[in-house]
């Protein structure tokens, strides 16, 4: 089957990397992600990736505990770099070429990100892992994902989560929550759905960047999204 998308921006949840550990990086989950990504790369899909850092540190929760908000967000940015290096290592161990870019200059840990250099890496068949969020405090990795998707001219932004789409409420807390198959950007904002922050949603809306929210923790789901199978929720 011919893939529906040629170039994607994949947003991965830092919390999902914990697996069942409750903290840090579960190597089984990490390797599962790497294998799903390898299968896409083998089909010629160009893949940019942004990973959250919530399995290690979240700036907002740090601020709630008394950390300075800017310092807390910077700590969160560093957490995304750790996750990005872990994914890079997992990919390279199974023969997939990957390149870590960082939004702030952290050479030799990663190359300082620019849209042009990331696009060049994608064109060469490398996975472009873009770490460090936007490089600015007060912005989430969701917003960074939306921004990078637009910058690298992705066909779509895929948000891999622990949940199989967008619901009327948190399905992990509310058993009566119902799932949307499709929903507009405006309805996501109007209903205050917490699938991603409002800045990220608005950025995708303004640039016509479609989003699919899906369960990344089930092996095979990423390939199904690429093939256009109706899993997850489409935001348009």
Characterize the structure shown:
Helix 1 links the parallel strand 1 and strand 2 (46-51). The strands form two sheets. A nine-stranded mixed β-sheet has the order 4-3-5-2-1-6-10-11-9, with helices on both faces. Helix content is 38%, strand content 19%. The protein has helices at 27-42, 59-64, 69-93, 115-123, 141-151, 185-191, 198-206, 221-226, and strands at 7-12, 46-51, 98-102, 111-112, 127-131, 156-161, 166-167, 179-180, 182-183, 211-215, 233-235.
β-strand percent reads 15-25%
**Mean of residue pLDDT?**
95
The spatial strand order of the largest sheet comes to 4-3-5-2-1-6-10-11-9
Say how many strands there are. 11
Derived structural class: alpha/beta
Q: Low-confidence stretches at least 5 residues in length (pLDDT < 50)?
A: none
String of helices and strands = EHEHHEEHEHEEEEHHEHE
Count of alpha and pi helical runs: 8
Please state the CA-atom Rg, rounded to the nearest Å: 17 Å
Main sheet makeup: 9 strands, mixed
Q: What level of helicity do the residues show?
A: 25-40%
- CA-to-CA gap between the ends? 24 Å
Give the overall shape, derived from the CA principal axes: globular
């Amino acid at each position: 089957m011919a893939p529906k998308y040629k170039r994607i921006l994949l947003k991965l949840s830092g919390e999902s990397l914990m697996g069942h550990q409750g903290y840090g990086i579960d190597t089984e989950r990490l390797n599962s992600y790497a294998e799903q990504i390898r299968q896409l790369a083998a089909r010629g899909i160009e893949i940019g990736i942004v990973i959250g850092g919530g399995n290690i540190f979240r700036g907002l929760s740090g601020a709630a505990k008394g950390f300075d908000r800017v310092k807390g967000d910077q700590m969160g940015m560093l957490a995304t770099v750790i996750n990005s290096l872990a994914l890079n290592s997992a990919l390279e161990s199974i023969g997939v070429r990957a390149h870590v870019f960082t939004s702030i200059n952290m050479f030799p840990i990663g190359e300082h990100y620019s849209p042009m250099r990331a696009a060049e890496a994608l064109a060469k068949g490398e996975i472009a892992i873009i770490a460090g969020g936007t490089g600015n405090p007060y912005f989430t990795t969701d917003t960074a994902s939306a921004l990078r998707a637009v910058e690298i001219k992705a066909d779509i932004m895929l948000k891999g989560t622990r949940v199989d789409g967008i619901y009327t409420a948190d399905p992990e807390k509310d058993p009566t929550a119902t799932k949307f198959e499709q929903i507009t950007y405006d309805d996501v904002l109007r209903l205050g759905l917490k699938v991603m922050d409002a800045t990220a949603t608005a950025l995708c809306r303004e640039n016509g960047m479609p989003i699919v929210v899906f369960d990344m923790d089930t092996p095979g789901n990423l390939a199904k999204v690429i093939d256009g199978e109706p899993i997850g929720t489409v935001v348009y």
